[in-house]
Amino acid sequence: MEPRKDLLDIASLSLEEIEFVLKTAGPFKELFTKSIKKVPPLRGKTVLTLFYEPSTRTRSSFEIAAKRVSADVTNFTVGSSSVVKGESVLDTIDTLQAMKCDYVVVRHAAAGVPNMISKHTKASVVNAGDGFHAHPTQALLDAFTLRETFEDLTGKKILIVGDILHSRVARSVGQICEKLGMEIGVLGPGSLIPQARPKFMRKFYTYDEALAWKPDAIYLLRVQLERQNDQFFPSLNEYHKIYGLTEERFRQVEGEGTWVLHPGPVNRGVELGDDVMTYERTLINQQVENGIAVRMAVLYWLQPETN
Ligand code: CP
């Protein structure tokens, strides 16, 4: 497979490139059961994580992944940097470029920032989430997790529930599932389902209607209160009653053997109840574990221009 310089979104990836990353992640995951989990391909390279928004999973997952492929890692902490003194993103990148980093993993609240940075640096840029736009490594790790569960995804149905409008995860996961042959349904408050959604996203109006479609997997999105300037639904309690995986709905899902995914962090009592967290077909922890293997594969695949 031809290497790429950057990973900015799912939309621009070919099916062959997606398959390459998923296939490469498999042997990396096998290392996790060994006492030595480290391999040498990025020895001598430097990975910089540059997060302008909070993160638990993605940032630590990239750090562990980079160390497992033997790269050196520097975490740039925006809150204690010159960014708080007004330094622009591009000036920050110029400064960091002078330090000869090979990979920059960036998260930013504004869509398109990783793209802008990629044109400005010889380092490989990995989008770790930009505004409402894209979260490609989340989608790749979810596809890897679904593949582990179902093997062949062709014709399998996934129901994405929640705030589709503000979700970079929904956009990227929808795109990758479509490329891998899945059927995609969406369910959420009318104000949070975009009118201009892709044709492959089939809209459901109620949970009953969506569950009658018999999805193989349900993907619960986090309610992103931090991205909503306006009130899109009356209250979190109301959201849970109408769009949450309540105890009653969970019993139905459990009876059907439906798998449950969530990108994290979960809002217990909003998107789901406690019982979902201990359900044997909840893939949330598997998603986190697979995130490391998939990010190792991404770093291994990308080729910076710094050589
Ligand atoms: N899934 C995800 O992006 O989680 P974090 O915000 O914790 O990185």
How would you characterize this protein structure?
Strands 7-6-5-8-9 form a five-stranded parallel beta sheet. It has eleven helices and nine strands. It is globular, with a radius of gyration of 19 Å. It has 307 residues and is an alpha/beta fold. The chain has two domains: 15-134 and 291-301, Rossmann fold (3-Layer(aba) Sandwich), CATH 3.40.50.1370; 136-288, Aspartate/ornithine carbamoyltransferase (Rossmann fold, 3-Layer(aba) Sandwich). The structure holds phosphoric acid mono(formamide)ester (CP). Residues 55-58, 129, 138, 263-265 line the site of phosphoric acid mono(formamide)ester.
* Basic shape: globular
Question: What string, H for helix and E for strand, traces the elements in order?
Answer: HEHEHEHEHEHEEHEHHEHH
First-last Cα distance? 19 Å
How many H/I helical runs? Answer: 11
CATH class of the largest domain: Alpha Beta
When the domains are counted, the total is 2
Largest sheet: 5 strands, parallel
Percent of residues in β-strands:
5-15%
Per the CATH scheme, the topology name of the largest domain is: Rossmann fold
Strand order of the largest sheet: 7-6-5-8-9
Please state the average pLDDT score. Answer: 93
Structural class: alpha/beta
**CATH structural architecture of the largest domain:** 3-Layer(aba) Sandwich
